[in-house]
Amino acid sequence: MTPALALERLMLHPSYDRFVQRARQIAPVALLDQADAAATDAHRIIADVAVRLSDNPARPTTAGDLPGWLRLSLLDTLTAFADGWATTCRHNPAADRPSPVVGAAWKPHMVVCPTCVHLLSLRHDAAADAVCDGCGHQCAGPEHGDGIYPGMVQLGPLLYQYGTCGGCRPDAAGSGTLSATEAAEQGTPRGTGRVTPRGSRGRSRGKGRQR
Length: 211
Ligand SMILES: [Zn+2]
Ligand SMILES: [Zn+2]
Fold this sequence. Notes:
The chain is of the alpha/beta class. It has helices at residues 3-12, 16-26, 29-54, 68-83, 126-129, and strands spanning 59-61, 87-88, 101-104, 107-112, 149-155, 158-164, 178-182. The protein is built from 5 helices and 7 strands.
């Protein structure tokens, strides 16, 4: 079983919340504080993205509320990052130094800091930019009523972007520790200048800070 599958099984278990509480009790306080701060920062970013994408607040959700493809894709990248073999930006984010990081369903195993989202860009690949991350459908474009709906889900410090066709849009809402947001309109510019720059999926335009 891969680490992602093991983690998925754990997160879908009815006792998962109790497990997390117990793990928090025995975790080193300093690391826990750092991890909580990173998660809070990441939540601030998704809350900002939610307003820009959909005018709706980011909603709490649980792993079980996400479609299987999105949950496994997210966990696969998260466990690669935790294991230390994910591709990262030159700022070298690492799981043992918790801070907000960004990944994308269309770039598996790549995790970057919020200032390096251009590395997730599909700007030069319009064909890939039109592919649904859920089913692989090549969307004809919003002008044909067949555009990509961008979305983002947050788990701890990780902000995870995806784009879907109309049929694969997750209907994620619940009461868990994850947060999710989706665009209301197909072909909506993706997110903010800081995390999902305007224009296209992961496109680096607008107010993106560069270091
Ligand atoms: Zn970076
Ligand atoms: Zn689809």
